[in-house]
Specification:
The protein is an alpha+beta fold and 128 residues long. The protein contains four helices and five strands; from the N terminus they run ββββααβαα. It has a single domain, classed as Ribosomal Protein S5, domain 2 (2-Layer Sandwich).
Length: 128
């Protein structure tokens, strides 16, 4: 099996995922998963598609992550892994979609508007 690649995005984070056959090693930006994401919750989020299909020990995964915060990065990696697994085996798509791993979350930060301190907050109104 050759290397399968996919892209996952969430908020401002972009994950380029490369999946190959191996022993279940996940490397993010040349660091181990538990080193890059010390939080066990975020490690769990990244591994969710692999655990759902019970293939966690079957593939080696290399991820290039940039942009966003740690939560957005973890969810971008999850989407990228799910998309790569579907490229490998198309029958898995229904199971991953049912869990919501195939859906790109479209919510992003609203832009700041001119004449306001933030996106929706207004400066204090003064009648006189």
């Amino acid at each position: 099996m050759e290397v399968v690649n996919a892209i996952g995005r969430r908020k401002a984070a972009i994950a380029r995922v490369f999946v190959s056959e191996g022993t279940g090693k996940i490397v993010i930006n040349k660091r181990e998963l538990d080193n890059y994401f010390p939080s066990t919750i975020l490690q769990y989020v990244v591994k969710q598609p692999l655990n759902k299909l019970a293939v966690a020990e079957k593939y080696d995964i290399k991820i290039n992550l940039n942009g966003g915060g740690y939560k957005g990065q973890a969810e971008a990696a999850r989407l990228g892994i799910a998309r790569a697994l579907v490229k490998i085996n198309a029958e898995d798509k229904a199971a991953l979609r049912a869990e919501g791993f195939m859906t790109r979350d479209p919510r992003v930060v609203e832009r700041k508007k001119p004449g306001q301190p933030k996106a929706r907050k207004r400066f204090q109104f003064s009648k006189r």
